[in-house]
Amino acid sequence: MKTLDDDLRERLAPLRGLEPTDEEIARLLASADELRARTRRPRRSLRAVGVVAACAAAIGGGLAALPGGRDAARPRSAHGILEAAAAVAAEQPAPGAYRYTRMLSRFVDEVHADGQQGQVTYEQTSENWTSDAFRGRTVAPQGTIELDAPPGDALRVAGGHANGLVKRYDGSYRYGDGPIARVRFAELPEDPQALAALLEAAIRDGRWLPHPGRPKWAPGVAEEEVTRSAVILLSMGNLTAGQRRALFELLGSRPGARSLGDVHDAIGRQGVGVALPLASALGDELRMIIDPGTGDVLQSTEVLPPPPARLPQGTPRPPHWPPPVWLAQRTEVFLSTGSVAALGDRP
Amino acid sequence: MTTIDHAGLLAASAPGALTDDQVARRAIQVARRTALGVLGDAEAAADVAQDVAITAVRRAGSLRDPAALDAWLHRIAVRAALREARRAGRRREAERAGHDPPRGGDDALTGALALLDGLPARQRAALTLRYVHDLPDAAIAGALRCRPGTVRSLLSRGRDAVRAALEHDDRSPHEDA
After folding, report:
1. Boundaries of every domain in chain B
2. Which of A20, A60, A127, A138 could lock onto A75 through a cystine, CB 3.0 to 4.6 A?
3. What is the pLDDT, as a whole number, of residue A56?
């Protein structure tokens, strides 16, 4: 008579059947060799890049080989999705003088104050033209604010504060763009490791500050900014196909990425989703939805869990903690993007 | 499909002779099975396996005894899978309307994963290490960083839960009738 142990071994056996095939292994090794031949880097760097590509191929292949008919042509892991997006991005035409982006920016604040709990959602549509180093223009009509019903005083106060963030705007490119504001696009390398190094250096050396200075970063924060900056560059940067490919490869080499599979963005377009960890200790993450046909970023969402009730040991406790209002989600939906010859032109 | 005899491979290798691709292949194999058992999600398991393989290749040089590779891989794979399970749990709590995690596989795989569905992550890990990787109590204890007695308890509770689920499934058609 079969024991429960035997029965369990038999029932869980399908988990053992996830071996890469010989063909997949050969493809995997060929990818690694190709990368080795293409790059001239110190041994340590080569190993890391080779393995990233090799693992992506192996895992993508392994999943495609699952019995039951997974789509072999469509990568399913986060790294496979990003590698595929890199390949598609590399095929795109050269950029014009400006990158045009029409986008919907939506923010969700959580309010926990005076015994009330609810959300304030505010959003604004804008048109942006960016050239080198994010020089350009933003035009945005007045946005909207929505309060959870029934709106108490705390929600109304939070909504009042949000009002200033969705005012009508017409001026220089509004977003900067943060720590990579003064990076010349022509200097961005088409090698993912060199690109990551340049972005991290730009973030750390403080060239983006109004006055010269070298900001201090908590451990891991500058690395998270590299991830965020790569997504911003892919969305808003007027870049070459090679630079876009390198940015996707850079994201593919970040640890902790996870696949969201086939997803729809806020306006119903289908794409493939990837979540990238930001402040891992707090659980922040950046979710991208990519058009697999063009490599365009359809939507990016930063999800921020509630502030922890207990701060890490040694962290000074602010006077009001946890805060009564915090940003829970920031989403940018890229409604229309393309290359144009002049400010004011639309694709 | 070729199944690699890793025990033979390791025994035949001189210390320090493992190549990057041998380490990466073994890491992916160990981590994907473990993560799939713990997480029940093929795509999440692939991502965990990717991270484990990168860690493994970067740090394999510091492993003084290549014969200990498997034990080390089991330990880092279990840790990565449990960490992802905690993150996934927090995400489910924090999100009001999020993405459903994609699940994948054929009927047999779906059935296997359904068997573990609903169990605590450490029980799932223990059952996977025993019945998928065929590890003894001491090796499971090493991977889970607990005492062998705790492993026996985890396995016992896991088996009880699975038995109850199987008995329920067996009874269901009669109840429906």
Report:
1. 18-176
2. A60
3. 40
